[in-house]
Recover the amino acids of this structure.
């Protein structure tokens, strides 16, 4: 499974467990542009995760579902080769949690309010790796996305950004995937008929031959064998 999907799913799962009754729903894999009603072609926003000059209005369908949290995978923002580790690349990724609730929480409102939800989301997610092979989440920007009235009160959406990274391993030059099990991420290529190659054979033994200087004949011979797996 893609690490992007794994991390996004883990973020949503932790928020579902941790937020309790503060929100109606925690959903993953929703598009920020659809939630906010943005029109990227109009040039108001540089990208779906970068605010521009004007604040958008909230999509009415999204407004009706608040209070809620939605997680968005912002993608891999850059990759750098790891100088000390051949064929490994550091993949830097961005994730966003969109928080939606009443702009102000008062005595007449039983919910937490948008800024309390921002605190709660960052509190639950900062420094977490979810048991995955990723760097713990680093909290980044908090960005107001827009607001709209509902029931005579202002409701707001706020984006909370988080970054992380992991190491991706490349194939040797000229080689093809060789998945070992169905759980191997490269099993994707087998499932869809991609080109594969046989996995490298397990090392069994190495034969070492010795001869004295100036002599062509072998004077001694050693065999270094791979030990059998322990039965303990």
């Amino acid at each position: 499974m893609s690490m992007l999907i794994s991390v996004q799913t883990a973020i949503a799962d932790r928020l579902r467990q941790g937020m309790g009754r503060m929100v109606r729903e925690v959903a993953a894999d929703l598009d920020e542009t659809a939630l906010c009603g943005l029109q990227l072609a109009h040039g108001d926003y540089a990208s779906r995760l970068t605010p521009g000059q004007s604040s958008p209005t909230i999509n009415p369908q999204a407004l009706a579902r608040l209070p809620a949290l939605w997680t968005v995978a912002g993608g891999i923002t850059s990759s750098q080769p790891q100088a000390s580790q051949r064929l490994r690349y550091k993949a830097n990724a961005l994730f966003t949690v969109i928080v939606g609730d009443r702009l102000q929480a008062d005595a007449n409102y039983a919910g937490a309010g948008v800024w309390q939800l921002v605190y709660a989301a960052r509190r639950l997610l900062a420094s977490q790796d979810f048991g995955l092979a990723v760097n713990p989440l680093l909290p980044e920007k908090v960005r107001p996305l827009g607001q709209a009235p509902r029931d005579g009160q202002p409701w707001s959406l706020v984006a909370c950004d988080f970054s992380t990274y992991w190491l991706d391993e490349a194939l040797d030059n000229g080689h093809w995937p060789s998945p070992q099990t169905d759980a191997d991420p490269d099993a994707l290529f087998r499932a869809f008929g991609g080109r594969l190659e046989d996995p490298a054979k397990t090392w069994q033994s190495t034969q070492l031959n010795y001869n004295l200087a100036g002599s062509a004949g072998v004077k001694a011979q050693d065999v270094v064998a791979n030990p059998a797996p322990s039965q303990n």
About this structure: The beta strands are 25-28, 68-81, 88-102, 138-150, 153-169, 205-210, 220-225.
